[in-house]
Amino acid sequence: MFRHGALVLVAALAAAHGAGPARAHTTSTGLATITVDGRTLTYRLLLVPSELPEPPRRLFAAAAQGDRASAEQVVAILRARLTIRAGDQACRPGRAVVQGSGVGDGRLSLELALECPHANQLLVRDDWADVFGSHHQTLARIEGPGGIREIAFLPDAREAVVPLAGTAPSGRLGFFRLGIEHILTGYDHLLFLAALLLGGGGALGLLKIVTAFTLAHSLTLALAVLGLAHVSARLIEPLIAVSIVWVAIENVVRGDGVSRRWIVSFAFGLIHGFGFAEVLQPLSLPPWPLARALLGFNLGVETGQALVIALTIPIALWVREAPWEARAARAASLAVAVVGTVWLVERVFFT
Asked: Is the Cβ–Cβ distance between 280 and 225 less than 8 Å?
């Protein structure tokens, strides 16, 4: 009943995949820590250059490898794209450091010291999206006299007011929006969901599939972010690709009406939840701010997922009587299997 709507989604995802590098997400994420100690403020930003678009990828990767000229350019960009004001006065930037992680994971750490006048609040502006593109976001942990709080800086939400005493804004809306963007640009997660739907079935079967996937990835997302379970991204990312190939091949081999598809959805949903957790885990937030961020992010993921399904169903209802639908669904499943295999090879041998 709903297979062809998923087929349309597969075609869109395949086109997006072919338009650029074969990465699961078009987003890049910076992890920032802002520490306030009296008049001294320290800003640290962790980036993964391989996530960045060209040409900043080349520049930042060279800086991570110790190239002095590239590091100087990165420092200049850092000073231009980060603005922090204390009250109505700008904080004065001081010494900056650019450093690779030193453990061979390709990460780059930027650190900038600033001198700020005394004030009751800070205005932080993050303009990294001008450098890294419209799908970049910075997740910030701010530590100061007012406690610890979390903020998500997005391309259209670049500024945040941070009180230096009293109650701070929770940033829940920012993490909600981050969750929506994460699922809408998470082509591997969407392609897996499309492969599940290509297996056929009616409205009740669709509800079981989506519910099982939602419960499973919500469970492992919470366990991972809360530190109760951990699986390396080097294992999770290939397994996500395996889940796509598995379900797509099952569609081709077993044909219409794959039985107990919700069980497969739940099992692989557990793996996808660990993939979602990669966004929040590195923040190391204390329990209550972490719970708020987790709730907002997960609600955003579910909202984005529901949006995709809601857009798919009308198309499916429109073409459900087409005589060629079953053949097209199998052909689309083969295409999904090919894309998933490419991702699997990339994640095993080239990351």
From this structure: yes
- Compute CA 281 distance to the chain's CA centroid, rounded to the nearest angstrom: 11
CA–CA dist 29, 36 (Å, integer): 23
- Tell me: the pLDDT tens digits for 130-155? 999 888 888 888 888 867 777 888 88
- Check if the beta carbon of residue 346 is closer than 8 Å to that of residue 22: yes
Is 26 a residue whose pLDDT tops 60? no
- Cis status of the peptide bond prior to 55, with omega within 30 of 0: yes
Judged by DSSP in three states, 231 sits in: coil
Is-above-0.70 flag for pTM?
no
**Rounded distance between C-alpha atoms, residue 171 and residue 148, angstroms:** 12
**Are 33 and 82 contacting, i.e. CB atoms less than 8 angstroms apart?**
no
For residues 219 and 308, what is the distance between their CA atoms, to the nearest angstrom? 21
- Ordered DSSP codes for 132-187: H-TTEEEEEEEEETTEEEEEEEBTTB-EEEEESSSPPP--HHHHHHHHHHHHHTBH
User: 114 forms bridges with which residues in the sheet?
Assistant: 41, 93
Residue 91 Ramachandran class (φ > 0 left, ψ -120 to 50 alpha, else beta) = beta
Q: How far is C-alpha 18 from the chain's CA centre? A: 20
Q: Tell me which residue of 178, 168, 169 sits closest to 139, measured CA to CA.
A: 178
CA dist., res. 326 & res. 59, Å (int): 48
Yes or no: say if 297 and 29 are a contact pair by the CB < 8 Å rule: no
For residues 297 and 279, the answer to whether their CB atoms sit within 8 Å is: yes
In this structure, the dihedral spanned by the alpha carbons of residues 205, 257, 273 and 215, taken in order and rounded to 10 degrees, is 20
**AA identity, residue 306:** A
Residue 277, pLDDT above cutoff 90: no
The token duo for 303 is 């909202």
Phi, psi of 104 (to 5 degrees): 80, 15
Query: Nearest CA to 132 among 152, 164, 155?
Result: 155
SS3 172: helix
Tokens of 304: 């984005």
Pairing of strands 159-163, 89-90: unpaired
